[in-house]
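Retro notes
What went well: the complex prediction finally ran end to end.
Inputs used:
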Amino acid sequence: MLQEQCLWELIAPTGERFDSLKQDARTQVCIVGAGYTGLSAAIHLAEKGIDVIVLEAKQVGSGGSGRSVGFVNAGTWARPDDLNDYLGEEVGRHLTKELGLAPSLVFDVIDKYKIDAQDTRTGNIHMAHNAAGEKDVDIRYEQLTRLGADIERLTGSECHDYCGTTRINKALLDRRAGTINPQAYVNGLARAAKSLGVKIYVDSMVTSVEKSEGKWYVKTAEASVQADKTIVATNAYTEGEWTELNKTFYLVEYYQIASEPLYGVEADKILPYKTGAWDTRIALSSMRRDKDNRLLLGTVGGKKMKPKSFYQSWANLIQKHYYPNLPKFEWQYEWVGKFGFTQDHIFRVFEIDDSLLAATAYNGRGITTGTMLGKCFAEYILTGDRKTIPLPFKSLEESKVAYNGVRSSFTEMGVSLYHFGQCLRVVR
Ligand SMILES: Cc1cc2nc3c(=O)[nH]c(=O)nc-3n(C[C@H](O)[C@H](O)[C@H](O)COP(=O)(O)OP(=O)(O)OC[C@H]3O[C@@H](n4cnc5c(N)ncnc54)[C@H](O)[C@@H]3O)c2cc1C
């Protein structure tokens, strides 16, 4: 029976238990949000002896961090040359370099704090599903090779072997990348932060962030934290009227479905090197396996206003397309998450006040971006050196996405039509 339930928390090692904030407290840095960004910042500050309090509205990883696909990817969705066009050559190249190193940063944190993140480090694959996709793969290959990235272009039988399907004849293997169980990683970050003395409070939704006489007062319904500096790491899951950060992106939903554990020769052929993979469709299909050999498929789109079995039909179609010889099996779990998007696919960083930092809109690339930016924020607070942040700060005003609700609705409508087309076999 298919259950609406995120798989990752079921198979992650049990996380630490935390209390809610019940009494007023003081700290050097208060962080709002316990996802990759907030916890990475907490760890990198606490490593240098800074006193940190993290306030989380729900539980550790309740936002995007606990429910992602788990691809530890290098770079943004935009190609490196496009980043240079948007940001200028100097900033673009610097950002591509830093994001190229970000998977190693994630794996270093995992190793350093002995996190059982159920990770794989064998790379991820961008699979060309048609001629236009093959061209895209060629362009990315050319640009990334020029930059010295550890990538490979797969073709022919080698490509079939890596992808586990004869439907793909060309793909880009990025050896820098890998996969994790997202909830296991974020639980591990929380445990590491706690071991360094960071105080984490859950079920503690921040309702206001105000400055008075040089100090920040970060308030929940029950108590308040006084801090010298504040980092707002609430991203696409921002709740409350105290901030306008959620106007700096438009929300896009992402659906995932996981099979029961699969056995046998045909199951073993799917992504045999435990890489993650996604195709070049406009409404992409992602695929990976978990530690128990489940097949996970995902795509852009939410479940609202759709027939109950709509995405199950979609998943059956994709599975039969790519892995037609797989014996019959059941789908076990399905869930939806949301991420913040911008038209240029580049995240935003804000210095709202000289002692209040925030980041949003990771455009579906938050494992590496969040871990990296958390570290960058920590370094910036420690050193005051602006060069520690790989993007120029923007003001909230200039970053507002006009009609972001309408954009979200149009995106959802567009991908729904695409999926209907796939199910009716009009779109291939
Ligand atoms: C379905 C899905 C698939 C994805 N797949 C990938 C992938 O494969 N690879 C990848 O790199 N990225 C992926 N992403 C993106 C990635 O998961 C996110 O970008 C990343 O988790 C963002 O981390 P974060 O710490 O900035 O924010 P979040 O993890 O969203 O954390 C924000 C936290 O702030 C809390 N919060 C909100 N408001 C308040 C408040 N008022 N007071 C206190 N706390 C508050 C929330 O409860 C939440 O826990 C995916 C995202 C989704 C949803």
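What we learned: The chain has a mean pLDDT of 96.
What to try next: split runs per interface for comparison.
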